[in-house]
Amino acid sequence: MNNLNELAKEYKQTKSQVILNNIFKLLYKALKDKASYVFYKQNFFKEKRTTEIFNRKTKRFEKKEEIITIKLYNTKKIELEDIEQELKLKVMELLTNFDVKKPFENYLFSTLKNWRPSYVQEVNFMKGLDTINESDLNNKDEENINLDNFPAPEQKIEEPTNYEILFQNLTIQERFLINILRKCPNKKQQELADIIGVTQPRIVKILKVLKTKVK
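User: That's the sequence. What structure does it adopt?
Assistant: Structure tokens below.
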């Protein structure tokens, strides 16, 4: 990764999609390994539970606290792809915020060392882990949607006063796309598709469904 630092500096100045793609190519294995660890091996806190156990010596029931953890691999709402997409978004955030006077590589890996997906920290995420995967979008309408009409961060849209309610109704892929559009409102459809790892027609479908959900 000898030229990662130089590419990072260049991307911060130019915001070039070509440079961003080259950065992701360099980081491909590192991000894959990190995502796999978080998905298959890392334990996440789920809940604290108090149980009563009978002690034969004292002949009494004694309270015992248990910490329940869960691996994302064992849930029915998260896939490895979701973790990889979140990592890509985090890298883009770090590319925007890092100090060009310091090595980007050190900043990147020290930050990602204790990284965890943002949706794991959501209040209702763990409560809903036993539900089935959100079904894939099934919309045959491939009409073109102009990204210029999609709400940018500074534009006000009619939305619930409780953001938590809105985001409960979105799939992880939809939330990921919204986060990208908030940070990079000028991204073209093909650029969004390259970042997320889907086709441009798929982006069109997701955007169309999102426009109906945020109304």
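Strands lie at 43-55, 60-71.
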